[in-house]
Amino acid sequence: MSFFVGVKKAWARRPCHLLDGVVTVTEMMQTTSAPLPVETPLVRVRELRTWFPIKRGILSQTVGQVKAVDGVSFDVREGKTLGLVGESGCGKTTVGRTILRLIPRTTGTVEYRGKDFFAYQGESLRKLRRHMQIIFQDPVSSLNPRMTVGNIIGEPIQVHGIAKGGERDELVASLLQRVGLDPSFAARYPHEFSGGQRQRIGIARALSLSPDFIVCDEPVSALDVSIQSQILNLLDDLQQERKIAYLFIAHNLAVVEHFSDEVAVMYLGRIVEKASSKELYSNPKHPYTLSLLSAVPEPNPRPKKTRIVLKGEVPSPSNPPTGCAFHPRCPLTREMARGGDERDTVQITSGGEPVRVLRKCVDEFPALEQKQGEAGHVAACWVTT
């Protein structure tokens, strides 16, 4: 059974409101959750870790751990968007799936509306599934090729007792229309659609249970630029209508800048910088964030900006570097170590070449600390202020 259904037993049926024989999405999908106090985030993640064991030998003994997510903390507020960015393999998708319990956590807590999400079991967990959904990255593999679009979107609606029969079909038609598709497409199969249309189907499926929190796992990375703007505008409109909170996972910083209220930058399973979108793009503090921003293409080639090219290989999450995980590739610690005292610097090998870096970056792990700028702008770096 898919995550969007989650249970075979239907819940208590919600009343259907009809307007001229058509189910209105706004009325049908109203959330029943009470408004949150201003100081309480919708989703609170603290010290989340997801490690995967490395097993070898005939007895499959655990010989190590792949630390895909290693101590991540952040808040997502009601009706707001947190952008989660970083290189491929840094743990972004694992964070989103662990929050939704699609992947088991190792340690850490996730609170939903002030309550421990991992404490929910059985029927109470199934009820909570309605409020936390996901839009998968691949719009092809995430849709069942043997089911029609109407059944893909309508299955969770029927299983959760929202509507049946003709009422369900009317609600599916309303959802398709809301995401910019013709209601007649309900009779077709996923292979008959383009990538952008499939992604709209995935969005309609995520909206079918009226969630107030959606993990958007790179929802536009596989689409061309014109379709990307349409999908982003659609997600923004839906957020304004229903006050949906998004965890927006992406590696395209240009997209995240205009879509997110707050941005967290991940590197090797950890968040290395977090700030509001405007603050992070205008006043980046972590060297890794600076390198990512330097790679964002500009529509105006003048003035020409300096491209920061990182040297060395991305470390393995099964054997991360000591201290600051970014130090083998960090251009800032290399620059500051030039001509430095040997007591304060150390020579390491990065990319097969000997380089000298600050000893503190190798020996001590930097915590997220407030940096110069607006309140809440934190970065994990010994060098920057």
Structure write-up:
With 385 residues, the chain is an alpha/beta fold. It has helices at 25-28, 92-99, 122-129, 149-159, 165-178, 195-207, 225-242, 253-259, 277-282, 287-294, 331-337, 359-363; strands at residues 18-19, 22-23, 43-56, 61-76, 81-85, 107-112, 115-116, 132-135, 213-217, 245-250, 262-267, 270-276, 345-350, 353-358, 369-370, 378-379. It is 28% helix and 24% strand. The strands form four sheets. Strands 8-9-10-5-11-12-16-15 form an eight-stranded mixed sheet, with helices on both faces. Strands 4-3-6-7 form a four-stranded antiparallel sheet. The protein has a two-stranded antiparallel ribbon with strand order 1-2. The N and C termini lie far apart (50 Å).
Summarize the structure.
This protein is α/β, with parallel strands linked by helices and 385 residues long. It contains twelve helices and 16 strands. The chain folds into two domains: 18-251, Rossmann fold, CATH 3.40.50.300; 282-379, no CATH class.
Present the secondary structure layout.
Blueprint: E1 18-19, E2 22-23, H1 25-28, E3 43-56, E4 61-76, E5 81-85, H2 92-99, E6 107-112, E7 115-116, H3 122-129, E8 132-135, H4 149-159, H5 165-178, H6 195-207, E9 213-217, H7 225-242, E10 245-250, H8 253-259, E11 262-267, E12 270-276, H9 277-282, H10 287-294, H11 331-337, E13 345-350, E14 353-358, H12 359-363, E15 369-370, E16 378-379
Parallel strand pairs: 5-10, 5-11, 8-9, 9-10
Antiparallel strand pairs: 1-2, 3-4, 3-6, 6-7, 11-12, 12-16, 13-14, 15-16
Helix pairs in contact: 4-5, 4-6, 5-6, 6-7
